[in-house]
Design a protein that fits this description.
The complex is a heterodimer.
Chain A (H helix, E strand, L loop, with lengths): L4 E3 L2 E4 L5 E6 L6 E8 L3 E9 L2 E5 L6 E5 L5 E5 L8 E8 L6 E2 L3 E5 L1
Parallel strand pairs in A: 2-11
Antiparallel strand pairs in A: 1-3, 3-8, 4-5, 4-9, 5-6, 7-8, 9-10, 9-11
Chain B lengths: L3 E4 L2 E5 L4 E7 L6 E6 L5 E7 L2 E5 L2 E6 L4 E6 L8 E8 L9 E3 L3 E6 L1
Parallel strand pairs in B: 2-11
Antiparallel strand pairs in B: 1-3, 3-8, 4-5, 4-9, 6-7, 7-8, 9-10, 9-11
Classes of the chains: A mainly beta, B mainly beta.
Chain lengths: 111, 112
Amino acid sequence: DSGVTQTPKHLITATGQRVTLRCSPRSGDLSVYWYQQSLDQGLQFLIHYYNGEERAKGNILERFSAQQFPDLHSELNLSSLELGDSALYFCASSVFAHEQFFGPGTRLTVL
Amino acid sequence: KNEVEQSPQNLTAQEGEFITINCSYSVGISALHWLQQHPGGGIVSLFMLSSGKKKHGRLIATINIQEKHSSLHITASHPRDSAVYICAVPTYSGGGADGLTFGKGTHLIIQP
């Protein structure tokens, strides 16, 4: 158990819908990273938040957004969903610039 | 942007064999990560290293910063080591703020 929690575990929704994925980092970690793992693209970095502020962006689509709240939990919002957004979404937390600890992931299926 | 190459893509070995997985990257980095992903999907961090060698039980990771190359070794391999092993580096050379860029992974199967 990494100490990072993600909810929900599974999510099934329809094209065009909007969903919110939630991540709670390990106690004491200020950094939260979001990653997407799909069959065709593999693991990809989406976005990094540190202590409530966005620090780096990766291959995150404009339809996706994220935020980190004062209690350090983070949410990833995915809107206007397409079939290709079906993937495993991981968050990871760390002390800044240190080893990253991954949550169990949220499996998103868009039908 | 960093590029990561891993080899081999697939590896099947017998229990007890010594396993080596290689990783090379294109841009100088502050640290490299080795991760393990089991069939259930969960990702576990095995090592983060910036120089030399680290050991954790039967796992050993080495890195050569000048040659931009790292290896993961498993000694006395066991069927429970069967998993996908993934090498990852900061996306840009910077480090702390970067997310990770990942190799495609090595699918390892250890047969009893």
